Amino acid sequence: MKLTALSSFCALMLLFCPVSKGQDDSLLFRGDTLLVQGDTLPYLLYNFDTSDDKVELPLVIFLHGAGERGDDNQLQLRHCVRYFMQDTIRDKFNFRMLIPQCGSAYRWAETDWTLPSHTMEATPSHPMSALMYLIDSLIATHRVDTCRIYAVGISMGGFGVWDLMQRRPNLLAAAVPICGGGDPSFAMQLTSVPIRIFHGKRDRLVMPSRSVQMYEAIRSCGGEQVSLELFDDLGHACWNRPFEQCGIIGWLFSQRKYPLK
Q1: CA nearest 63: which of 81, 84, 82, 37?
Q2: Band of the pLDDT at 25, cuts 50, 70, 90?
Q3: The pTM is what?
């Protein structure tokens, strides 16, 4: 697949309130767009303009939900990204971040989210295909620590994280799919990936059983690095709690995989 970068490197204002007094959030991200056979994949980058490019840095990939689809290259900042941008986090961890935006006509994983299960399509969706190409390009052109690449996704993005892991099981050092679902037939390939799964028990949009299903499938294949937490009092929009009460950012940055020999 031929993808052409449409350079539009510009600082973008965040959609959430500043995380510290006096901080200019417009300087935190720069935006670009990939042209993918007539389709576009907008994305935001954090910390890719650092003057100290001699050190390999971990990469966090954040996949948004269905409500943030579009082409404005801003809506994908609506949920959860602010947790990574807190001064306390950015002072403690030096990392890069990739935040793509799925087009309105597509999904990270082309499946019906209301189904009790699904089989992964042989061909990735247009935005997922572009995302995998983009990840490879960033690794090739920037100093990314390939032993510390992480993916976090909410709702539709949770499905996307599962889809990415299933298609590229050796890519990630850790993953956090929140209120999503995957294809349990790929469980054996995911046994070595540290995964923290979260879902609200009162979810009426994506069945909590989707997360339970993936957890049980991986465990049945011998996976010991997967965990599942179901929130009794939360529905679909449960994604703030893992950040606020479960320490997932610190956990992510503590995970590391070693190169295949």
Answers
A1: 81
A2: low
A3: 0.90
